[in-house]
Write a structure and sequence with these properties.
With 336 residues, the chain is of the alpha+beta class. It has two domains: 86 residues; 228 residues, 2-Layer Sandwich (BirA Bifunctional Protein, domain 2), CATH 3.30.930. 40% of the residues lie in helices and 19% in strands. Strand 6 and strand 7 form a beta hairpin. The two termini are 73 Å apart.
């Protein structure tokens, strides 16, 4: 046993390692629980008692020397690996940095906000989990009225009065509830509707709505505001038309169409060969909505409008599947 210890001490002194494989081989032989040290300590119990002190001291020296050598070899191997990696880099190659880009919906939303801010609109935000009053009742949706079925709603089952907002109009109500006219704000944000997911519809999407309430606000103000937006967003030659429609919270109400900026009105698949594409809805705020928020409808009037950010983005970039916006496919997102 004494000869083995001397042999191992000499071997450790002479051993070197320049690679990770050689370092691992040293560890397995001298450091691991299944190495020679374990065998020597198992054989120690067979040493006569009068020799245990001498052999025990030699075993401790061997153990400490093995551990010290192992740490030394680790430094040697790591230094060699660093030099090898540094030497493998060709510093003459041109640099490449993949910086990424904004999501197309973010780009569109930022542009919409910029256009309306230049017209004096501020940006307001509100909760996505809402109560029935702010999402429906205050917006002139009578209880059990068929108008509520226009928007399939996700209700929170533990509290049927709590739901995921179906539009950002709830922010309009909260804004009017806690302030005094005039109001001139837009409300961008995500909304939720219980709809089947397809290329043209999704159960969650983004809207931006606008509200302007003051004395003597007219439909002409609404038209001029949206005329300016359409020309800034889609081009100076864009034409706008209003089609009569129905919304519980506005009266009169109108759908907003713009002339197709792809075919210039000649007809294409984007406009379904009509020369026009719909971008949103609008109208004069119903007096009942103003009164529900504590605003005197005889003194104040206002207009409101809303549009889908996905809809605008799909038109602007000629995207034919709304699902692409939320699938995180880098092949799609890298185009923007």
């Amino acid at each position: 046993m004494k000869e083995k210890i001397e042999q191992y001490l000499k071997e450790i002194d002479e051993l070197t390692a320049s690679t990770k494989d050689e370092l691992e081989a040293f560890r397995l032989k001298f450091i691991s629980r299944k190495g020679v040290m374990n065998d020597l300590f198992n054989s120690f119990k067979e040493v006569p008692n009068e020799q245990k002190k001498e052999f025990g001291a030699k075993l401790n020296v061997l153990k400490e020397k093995a551990q010290s050598k192992f740490q030394e070899l680790i430094e040697v191997v790591n230094t060699a690996s660093s030099k090898e990696e540094a030497g493998s880099i060709d510093v003459t190659l041109p640099s490449f940095t993949n910086t990424g880009s904004l999501h197309p919906l973010t780009k569109t939303k930022n542009r919409i906000i910029q256009i309306f801010e230049r017209q004096g609109f501020s940006v307001a935000e509100g909760p996505e989990i809402e109560d029935d009053f702010h999402n429906f009742t205050a917006l002139n949706f009578p209880e059990n009225h068929p108008a509520r079925e226009m928007q399939d709603t996700y209700f929170i089952t533990k509290n049927p009065d709590t739901l995921l907002r179906t539009h950002t109009s709830n922010v309009q109500i909260r804004l009017m509830e806690h302030g005094q006219p005039p109001f001139r704000s837009i409300m961008p944000g995500r909304v939720y509707r219980n709809e089947a997911i397809s290329a043209r519809a999704h159960c969650f999407f983004n809207q931006v709505e606008g509200l302007y309430v003051d004395k003597e606000v007219s439909f002409k103000d609404l038209k001029q505001t949206l005329y300016h937006f359409a020309k800034e967003m889609f081009g100076k030659d864009t034409q706008v038309r209003f089609r009569p429609s129905f919304f519980p919270f506005t009266e009169p109400s109108a759908e907003i169409d713009i002339s197709c900026f792809i075919c210039k009105g000649d007809g294409c698949k984007i406009c379904k060969h009509t020369g026009w594409v719909e971008i949103g809805g609008s109208g004069m705020v119903d007096p009942n909505v103003l009164e529900a928020c504590g605003i005197d409808s005889k003194e104040y009037s206002g207009f409101a409008f809303g549009m889908g950010i996905e809809r605008i983005t799909m038109l602007k970039y000629q995207i034919d599947d709304i699902r692409l916006f939320s699938e995180n496919d880098m092949r799609f997102l890298s185009q923007f």
